[in-house]
Amino acid sequence: MDYVKLINCMRCGMCLPACPTYKETFLETASPRGRVALIRKLQEGELDQSERLLEFLSLCLDCQACASACPCGVNAGELVAEFTCEKKSADGLGFMEDLILRKLVPHPDRLETSMVPMRLYQNSGLQKLVRTLGVLKMFPKPLERMEGLLPSLPSRSLRQEISEVTPAVGTERGTVGFFLGCVMSLIFSDASRATIKLLSVLGYKVITPRNQVCCGAPNMLGGDLEGLKEAARTNIDIFGGYMVDFIVTDCGGCGAELKKYGHHIEEEAASEFSTKVRDISQVLALHIEELQAKLKPLHQKVTYHDPCHIAHCQGIRKEPRDLLKLVPGLEYKELDTADACCGSAGTYNIAKPEMSDKILHRKLDTVRASGAEILVTSNPGCLLQLKKGLADQLPHVKLMHLTEILAQSMEN
Ligand code: SF4
Ligand code: SF4
Prior knowledge:
Helix content is 55%, strand content 8%. It is an alpha/beta fold. α3 (32-43) crosses α6 (76-91) and α14 (189-201) crosses α27. It is globular, with a radius of gyration of 21 Å. The structure holds iron/sulfur cluster (2 copies).
């Protein structure tokens, strides 16, 4: 780890009000400043890697709200992630981590097969029975959490059904590569179908390579830097085989990771790849007037939750709002602290359920206060977390991906 990044912290505390775990605990050790200090002391050999210290670090969501707030460019979330990677490469992956991060996640076909029992569980009516009887209370807590987060699954993944080339509607203005995020393809395929449709309607030929693999974000989260680099090399080779203007994604987490390939792999092909990556909102925002002409009224109140990976990691805040404000009749309400994390953070909501719930409840309170009937966001982790939260507390609020609401307005 670069020691300079640690000593850049001048301990001003400006990051504290932005940090979700500090807001819940008021503990210095659960703040960005405290985490930087802990890692620094570890590096300097003044502290040992005790269980308690590692626990404090593992409470970080890597939401990077601290990076947006820090005047010195310190990114505590990234430093914690780097520390975890270094520790993991020294300790090695455990059996389950190896199984998930190396043998499952990088293989889309295996991931798709792993969804079959879950689909059967839902379609056979067993899920309804299990939930009614509360059977899962007898099983380990994480299993109950995972089951509770599982939304209704589509019958097939988008990767299995989408053709590799979707032609442009009308005059072709360019070609884009579409990056299929694993969770988007497996669970939120309707949203990605809407994304491809919008691109095609705007005149882009969309290439969706079938052999692309996971972006590597789960590897990074699990501290498996080598696994991330392997995924990156595969995707760089695959997309490098096509002449595309942009590589577009509708998954905030994937976008943030794909844009960092050039940082992880110091090769020209990696930085070329990363420079082409765009969040869907960035591409759509290039065609505001054309979109405006195609959108039809939707008379509802809408608000927008900024996914951390879009607002803090990619600095994209204006485009999604501008796009929502284009829809005639749609009343846009700004959410209080819209860029505060929802508590999802990859598998954080399963690993740290109590903290995750507290953070989620704060978010739901702001949604309630906004009076919105539709909550829009653009990251599968947020979609999963907020879907569960809304179903429990605000069932009248509909959750949609940004491209779903735009496509719906176009179809009206
Ligand atoms: S991380 Fe940045 S904002 Fe936080 S205390 Fe250090 S210098 Fe200040
Ligand atoms: S990444 Fe998020 S949770 Fe972690 S220190 Fe920064 S603000 Fe706090």
